[in-house]
Specification:
14 strands; 3-stranded antiparallel β-sheet; alpha/beta
């Protein structure tokens, strides 16, 4: 029972890039009280910049002292030129995210075998993606620029001095930037964050760890990148060199490529002490191949072979991955077939396949767009790019047209029709008291509900259609040698789209490097892809969750050392996932007496509609049910139906009957069962662990800061229900579980 010395420590975790301490804590100013600069713990500050106590917490008919802290982690994902360049790694990051989207593996031999094959194919696909990037960059640096543009008498870049048009200078100008890029990629794959907390994250539900095979993958990807450059210098994989020396180098390079692919597939490690020697040998291959190169005035003969060969290999691996993933997802299906549709994994657990395909499409599109943009900017239209870039531009032109059509049908047709067909939702009528506000809320509810349910369908449909279209184009081009005339308009659209994509991406990177505060959109993208540890692809930004979660748990343990202190971990957006993982860590480590003083508050969380369905192996519903039971219901979730990114977290199957909201949700005794709720004086519906907030808010009360209009995903902290939910998460409020469950006597709780 809470005594007179009870106090509450609320630790808020930021969920969006650029969130300041003042915004997170809703304070005029803040000051750091712990952390290392990247992971910052802040508190409100007084006029002398000293830590000040937070606002008191109304609970139990009195005011409970509250200490307000915030954990800021966006310094790990945004700011500075180095972090800005991470946007260029987005195709790699998508391949890495696909690894975490794999379905859970049942305890069956066939399922384990299929899972091993899928992981191996995914890592091979990621390796080929690295090689494709370097092959495309080599086509730009060595072929388009060094071999063609700098050739004597080419008329390209007339201001370039003649000394740079000599053969050694041209080769050096083409090779040295490629070696520099490979070095930078290797350094990025080696970067990590120092964790200032005891213990390590272990595997299992709601707990993830760094892949121990990452150092080996890092070496393999660097060797493969060097081998792809050497292969282009030697004439490509399909052209046998004539001179004996070149033939030997060509065979060795092909053997190196094959060895890296096999090693990535089966997880062979060269060993810590052997890696420098392997890297040195691959670098030597590039140097010797560059010395042997004698470029003429036209394109290099190996460019088309390298780009087409790597592209075809990536397509083949993606198809194999999709084929093997299908039975793996079917074997995992019994684990979720009893769940409602909105809780099942996207595409039945098969969503990792189109995500890998999208990574390959983006990788190929970036290279084609950059090459086309540079060719046009050079002013020399006679420069030649790989012939397959025509297929890439056609594919992206068709994909852009398809996305535009589906977007118009969805946002301009489906949403208004949904709004007209359903009118004002009954749940809105329960919460709102003003007809004008009901109309505003209903329009926002219709749009957000459609996007939460169908936006991933739009993205996956475009990715799947582009993948199928790419396969058809390859068959048409190389099987029948046909290039229809109607490719012209689509190719023009694709060139414009890819050129704008490449130029816009470079501009965003430049802007983010100079003015980080203006690059929230870039940082938000980094927040998403940097959440996951390196697994399939090592050349991605370091995972911030591996640092935030243990440090957040350690901070909570420090406060729990005081027996009168109760700790509430509150997270917004992606911060909600971090708080849940930290709470799961505390639930596994703390004694029961200490765990009774821990609670969780999530707001605007994409957990249920997004992350739980996209990453079913890491965030299974059973683990979430167990965490809710371990906390005895002290997991509260603030939700708005108008919020596109955040919806219900602990409940589902919502319906309205007899002026009450009914649903199914997590129960504090374990499992799930029926819950119901009526709106309170502020229009809030507390359904199980979810607190559904009216939006727009009802008029200002004078006791809290108030914000007008439809807030959607913003300003959860201004709602008076925030403090009420904090009090309940701290165990200082009563959720009335027995009253909610008694309405459904014929619907017993399930485990």
């Amino acid at each position: 029972m809470p005594g007179p010395d009870t106090r509450v420590v609320e630790i808020r975790v930021a969920g969006l890039v650029g969130t300041s301490g003042e915004t997170l804590l809703d304070a005029v100013s803040t000051v750091d009280v712990a952390g290392d600069g990247l992971g910052r713990v802040v508190r409100p500050a007084d006029r002398l910049r000293r830590p000040a106590p937070g606002p008191v917490l109304p609970a139990l008919g009195r005011s409970i002292p509250r200490t307000l802290e915030g954990y800021l982690w966006h310094g790990m994902t945004s700011g500075g030129a180095a972090k800005a360049t991470w946007a260029l790694l987005f195709p790699f990051s998508l391949a890495n995210v696909a690894f975490w989207m794999l379905p859970p593996v049942p305890d069956r031999r066939l399922a384990r075998g299929l899972a091993t094959v899928c992981r191996g194919l995914l890592r091979v696909g990621a390796l080929l993606l690295t090689m494709l990037l370097m092959g495309q960059l080599a086509a730009i640096a060595l072929d388009l620029f060094a071999a063609q543009c700098l050739a004597p008498g080419s008329g390209c870049l007339p201001a370039v001095p003649d000394v740079l048009r000599s053969v050694p200078a041209r080769i050096a100008v083409g090779v040295l930037p490629l070696l520099a890029v490979i070095f930078v990629l290797h350094r990025i794959s080696s970067a990590t964050w120092a964790v200032h907390a005891d213990g390590d994250l272990t595997g299992g539900p709601l707990r993830m760890r760094a892949d121990p095979e990452t150092p080996a993958l890092r070496c393999l990807h660097t060797v493969a990148a060097l081998a792809s450059v050497a292969l282009l210098l030697l004439g490509g994989p399909f052209r046998v060199p004539g001179p004996t020396v070149d033939l030997v180098l060509w065979i060795i390079t092909l053997a190196v490529v094959l060895a890296t692919v096999v090693a990535a597939a089966i997880g062979v490690d060269t060993g810590r002490f052997a890696r420098p020697g392997v890297l040195a040998f691959a670098t030597l291959l590039v140097v010797v191949a560059a010395v042997r190169l004698r470029p003429g005035s036209g394109p290099l003969p190996g460019t088309n072979g390298v780009v087409e060969g790597l592209g075809a290999a990536l397509v083949a691996v993606t198809v194999l991955f999709a084929l093997f993933l299908a039975p793996a997802a079917l074997l995992a299906r019994p684990g979720w077939q009893h769940k409602p549709q909105r809780l099942r994994p996207w595409m039945g657990g098969w969503a990792a396949a189109p995500v890998l395909a999208l990574a390959g499409l983006l990788g190929g599109g970036f290279g084609a767009g950059l090459a086309e943009a540079l060719r046009r900017l050079s002013g020399a239209e006679h420069l030649q790019v790989p012939t397959t870039y025509l297929l890439v531009t056609v594919l992206w032109g068709a994909g852009l047209a398809l996305a535009a059509v589906l977007g118009v049908l969805g946002f301009a047709v489906a949403v208004p029709l949904r709004r007209l067909r359903r009118g004002i939702p009954e749940i809105v009528e329960l919460m709102e008291h003003d007809r004008r506000q009901e109309a505003q809320a209903a329009a926002a509810w219709a749009r957000s509900a459609w996007e939460r349910r169908h936006l991933h369908h739009l993205a996956l449909a475009v990715a799947s259609a582009m993948s199928a279209g790419g396969a058809a184009l390859l068959v048409l081009r190389f099987g029948f040698g046909l290039v229809p005339g109607w490719f012209g308009p689509l190719s023009a659209i694709g060139v414009v789209a890819l050129g704008a994509l490449a130029a816009g991406l470079l501009r965003v990177v430049y802007t983010a490097a100079r003015t980080p505060q203006r690059s929230r959109h870039l940082g938000a993208l980094a927040d998403l892809v940097c959440f996951w540890p390196r697994a399939a692809h090592p050349t991605v930004p370091p995972c911030y969750a591996l640092k935030v979660v243990p440090e957040l748990a350690a901070r909570a343990r420090e406060h729990l050392a005081d027996p009168g202190t109760r700790v509430v971990l509150s997270g917004y957006n992606l911060g909600s996932l971090l708080t849940l993982m930290a709470a799961a860590r505390l639930a596994a480590e703390l004694p029961a007496a200490d765990l009774e003083r821990v609670g969780v508050l999530t707001a605007g969380s994409p957990l249920q509609w997004g992350y739980q369905r996209a990453f079913p192996a890491l965030l299974p519903q059973e683990a979430l049910e167990r965490l809710f039971a371990d906390l005895d219901g002290r997991w509260r979730a603030l939700c708005r139906g108008t919020d596109i990114f955040g919806g219900g977290v602990t409940t589902w199957r919502h319906s309205v009957a007899d002026r009450r909201l009914h649903g199914v949700g997590f129960l504090p005794e374990g499992g799930f069962g029926p819950v119901s709720a009526t709106a309170d004086a502020n229009g809030v519906l507390i359904l199980g662990g979810d607190h559904w907030l009216p939006d727009p808010q009802r008029g200002p009360t004078g006791r809290h800061r108030w914000a007008p209009g439809v807030l959607k995903h913003q300003d959860y902290v201004v709602d008076a229900e925030w403090d009420h939910a904090v009090a309940m998460a701290a165990g200082l409020g009563k959720p009335s579980w027995g009253e909610q469950g008694s309405l459904f006597g014929d619907f017993p709780p399930k485990r």
